[in-house]
Amino acid sequence: MPEEGVLRVVVVRKGKVKPTEFRLRDGEVGLSLFRSVEQIGLEVILKAVHAAGKQAELGVVKIPVSVFRWLRLRLVQTPGGTPDPAVNAIHLEAQP
């Protein structure tokens, strides 16, 4: 059985995802992520994040939970900042 993963919405530039998409920005406490759930499709998440202000071509990267355990980061349920309550309900942050 594959390990559960979480989703990170990223900007895709020239068909590639850059490492800067996984850095904390000034004022951030944790890396913004979403639980992967069948009830909410990737397009719904992308649309909500775009509506919240993230511009350019967006994509989704699935990251295994084991990566966060290995880095000793906690996955914490936090309020999302999109206009979609269902998407906000599956928002997480990876925090030290």
Structural features, described:
The chain has one domain (5-95). The chain has 3 helices and 6 strands, in the order βββαβαβαβ. The protein has helices spanning 42-51, 65-70, 85-88, and strands at 5-13, 16-17, 31-35, 58-64, 74-77, 91-95. Strands 1, 2, 3, 4, 5 and 6 form a 6-stranded antiparallel sheet that branches. The longest helix has 10 residues, at 42-51. The radius of gyration is 13 Å and the shape is globular. 16% of the residues are buried.
Question: Which descriptors apply to this entry?
Answer:
alpha+beta; 96 residues; 21% helix
Mean pLDDT: 92
Helical amount? 10-25%
Number of helices: 3
DSSP summary, beta strand count: 6
Distance between the termini: 28 Å
Category from helices, strands and their pairing: alpha+beta
Strand fraction equals 25-35%
> How many distinct domains?
1
Which stretches are poorly predicted, pLDDT < 50 over at least 5 residues? none
Mind describing the biggest β-sheet?
6 strands, antiparallel
In short:
By secondary structure, the chain is of the alpha+beta class. It has 3 helices and 6 strands, in the order βββαβαβαβ.
Walk me through the topology.
Blueprint: E1 5-13, E2 16-17, E3 31-35, H1 42-51, E4 58-64, H2 65-70, E5 74-77, H3 85-88, E6 91-95
Antiparallel strand pairs: 1-2, 1-3, 1-4, 3-6, 5-6
